[in-house]
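Exercise 7b. Backbone tokens:
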């Protein structure tokens, strides 16, 4: 599925700095990458490592301080709103919090119709649009007739996450950025969502970039894994190479921190945080 010679998204020296002077924060620090068509990539790191900031730069939601992004081998140009919309036809995202991913004033029909319009279906007959929306909902095991005229907030978290996937089914972008897409749903639904994503990848040759702290997920789904620490890629390679034969201490620590049900949990790497409840637990009140 992966075409090694077909680079779909790459970056050189990509850097993002927030603030100035004492408030200066180096969120992403001169990262280089090259993603290929049909490849599944995971960018793994702890909270605050810079992975979500990198994802926002790839989406064009924020601009880099320095460095360049290349799309389909050409320097990315999103200098106008029209060019941004054209770029967003090819790159989309699923975010970890479905509750904040929708406009609360738009009904589900409007959410899906907007995807059809983005793909050039504005002039399609209403019956054809309904057929496309029903097909997208069916792909994610939802029934469109039960969703029509409802608002997203009327759905459960798992249903909203599936609706986000229905959007992707309609848009069929070349690249999908999935930022912790299964973090808020139960284990059974998580496996279903991942299977749907892999099916989309197989059907349309989509490149999927997972943004995650879950190194187990990264090993399960990925062709290539990037390990991110303090805004830098400290290790990268195939999933087997990075997870089974890690070279960097940070990668080894991420792997060792994964709990194993058949081993005693080692909490020595977890920083101890004293809890102060405002009272002395050894004191007793006189009767």
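Sequence design result:
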């Amino acid at each position: 599925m992966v075409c090694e010679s077909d680079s779909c998204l790459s970056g050189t020296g990509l850097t993002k700095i927030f603030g100035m002077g004492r408030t200066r924060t180096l969120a992403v620090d001169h990262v280089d990458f090259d993603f290929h068509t049909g490849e599944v990539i995971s960018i793994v790191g702890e909270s605050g490592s810079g992975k979500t900031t990198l994802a926002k730069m790839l989406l064009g939601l924020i601009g880099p301080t320095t460095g360049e992004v290349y799309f389909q081998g050409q320097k990315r140009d999103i200098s106008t709103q029209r060019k941004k919309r054209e770029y967003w036809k090819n790159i989309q995202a699923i975010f970890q919090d479905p509750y904040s991913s929708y406009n609360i004033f738009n009904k589900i029909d409007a959410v899906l119709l907007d995807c059809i319009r983005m793909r050039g279906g504005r002039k399609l007959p209403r019956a054809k649009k309904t057929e496309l929306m029903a097909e997208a909902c069916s792909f994610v095991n939802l029934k469109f007739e039960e969703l029509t005229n409802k608002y997203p907030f009327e759905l459960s978290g798992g249903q909203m996450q599936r609706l986000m996937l229905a959007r992707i089914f309609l848009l069929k972008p070349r690249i999908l950025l999935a930022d912790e897409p299964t973090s808020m749903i139960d284990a059974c639904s998580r496996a279903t969502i991942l299977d749907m994503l892999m099916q989309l990848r197989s059907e349309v040759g989509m490149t999927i970039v997972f943004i995650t702290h879950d190194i187990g997920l990264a090993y399960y789904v990925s062709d290539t894994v990037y390990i991110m620490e303090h805004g830098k890629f400290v290790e990268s390679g195939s999933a087997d190479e990075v997870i089974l034969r890690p070279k960097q201490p940070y990668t080894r620590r991420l792997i060792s921190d994964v709990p194993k049900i058949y081993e005693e949990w080692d909490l020595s790497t977890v920083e101890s945080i004293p809890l102060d409840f405002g009272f002395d637990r050894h004191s007793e009140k006189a009767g």
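Instructor comment: Residues 100-172 form one domain. Confidence is low (pLDDT under 50) at residues 281-287.
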